[in-house]
Design goal:
Elements: E1 2-5, H1 12-29, H2 41-46, E2 53-60, E3 72-81, E4 84-91, H3 100-114, E5 119-125, H4 129-136, E6 140-151, H5 157-165, E7 171-177, H6 185-194, H7 210-222, E8 225-234, E9 240-249, E10 255-263, H8 272-287, E11 293-299, H9 303-312, E12 315-326, H10 327-336
Parallel strand pairs: 4-5, 10-11
Antiparallel strand pairs: 1-2, 2-3, 3-4, 5-12, 6-11, 6-12, 7-8, 8-9, 9-10
The structure holds coenzyme A.
């Protein structure tokens, strides 16, 4: 049975059951990824940026003979932003290939269509059943990135300390746990606006103006995700010449996520990319005791960043693809197939 579900009011047992399903999915599809923990799971599922909406549904098994509620075997949510609905679907490995995934997508797609949105996008991890699934539904591949993972146990910290200081004169680095300080928000947002050479997946919106940046930082904190920032300041102008952002989620604090890394055009060629990333790793090592890995996503064409990441010790792990489809086409196709 698929029903609309609100994580803000869901019982703790439902949240725990959904987490069990997520971890079963990870164990089946991405066995090297750390399992998620329950801390702030509700907030992770419920909190959104101002102006965005997330609508969720679950598929729950029948109650047990003693009347206790059935497990959450499937979940779909759609994040409505701009003119696109970004979809995420999970089906417990024990409940796959019964048509549940398709039902969940149809339920969400109907709503996205009614709400007047044009298209649906989804992130699909390479070498998992999701590839065949979304292709069978008519989604097409728009964009491919590579996820790479850095195992901190293999890092040469002395070499890294050297990289962190190998920056041209006229720049200095600053480390800001929690986000950029208020007096730098405007310069920080300018750096992000000028260069959109992001490491991030296209489906994750970046924040280019100060207000949106503040909202985005607040939202991260509410979801239990702690941002860390290293930036390179250009001493002469006070401008932010480069920045790198890593987020440590309380749901999986052993593996951090690299978000944007940006070096502003005029400041390229001065060793900033290498230095800010090296400094970040050094800082994280002391700030986050449990951290053992960092993961990052790069466009395959972004050779400069891939080279620096390889030097730091990142190893390519999986393809991370964006698929999309026109909503009306999807709804008609799925309705016709019923
Ligand atoms: C992708 C996923 C949602 C599919 O769920 P499902 O309930 O098994 O899908 P359905 O039964 O509705 O399958 C519909 C169609 O998709 C295709 N399909 C689904 N899984 C497939 C597989 N493993 N191999 C080949 N085709 C597959 C088939 O065409 C299938 O139709 P059929 O069974 O009649 O042949 C599920 O595997 C899942 O949860 N994956 C994890 C997704 C995710 O986001 N992971 C993130 C962390 S890895």
């Amino acid at each position: 049975m698929v029903r609309e579900w609100d994580p803000r009011t869901a019982s703790s047992a439902e949240i725990a059951s959904l987490l069990d399903t997520l971890n079963a999915v990870l164990a089946a599809d991405l066995p090297q990824d750390p399992p998620w923990r329950e801390r702030s799971m509700r907030e992770y599922l419920a909190e959104v940026m101002p102006g965005e909406r997330r609508i969720s549904w679950v598929a729950q098994a029948e109650p047990a003979a003693d009347g206790s509620p059935g497990a959450i075997l499937g979940h779909v949510h759609v994040l409505l932003l701009g003119d696109i609905g970004v979809l995420e679907v999970l089906v417990h490995p024990s409940a796959r290939r019964t048509g549940l995934g398709r039902d969940l997508v149809l339920t969400a797609a109907r709503r996205v269509y009614q709400e007047g949105f044009q298209s649906i996008g989804v992130e699909v991890v390479g070498d998992t059943p999701a590839v065949a699934f979304y292709e069978s539904l008519g989604f097409s591949k728009e964009y491919v990135e590579t996820r790479s993972v850095l195992d901190l146990s293999g890092v040469d910290w002395a070499e890294l300390a050297e990289m962190a200081t190998g920056i041209s004169a006229g720049y200095h680095l600053q480390f800001h746990p929690g986000g950029p300080p208020d007096e730098l928000i405007e310069a920080y947002a300018r750096a992000k606006a000028e260069v959109r050479d992001v490491e991030d997946g296209e489906l994750r919106p970046s924040s280019y103006d100060p207000e949106r940046l503040r909202d985005s930082l607040d939202c991260l904190h509410r979801r239990g995700m702690k941002p860390y920032i290293v930036l390179a300041l250009h001493e002469q102008t006070g401008e932010v010449a480069g920045l790198t952002e890593v987020v440590v989620p309380v749901q999986h604090p052993t593996r951090a996520d690299q978000y944007d890394t940006i070096v502003v055009q005029d400041h390229r060629g001065y060793g900033i990319d290498r230095a800010i990333k090296a400094r970040m790793l050094l800082e994280l090592r002391s700030a986050e005791a449990e951290l053992t890995e960092v993961q990052t996503w790069n466009a395959q064409a972004n050779e400069a960043m891939l080279k620096v990441n390889a030097e730091l010790g990142y190893r390519p792990d999986r393809e991370w693809c964006e698929y999309s489809i026109d909503v009306a086409e999807l709804v008609h196709r799925l309705d016709a197939g019923r």
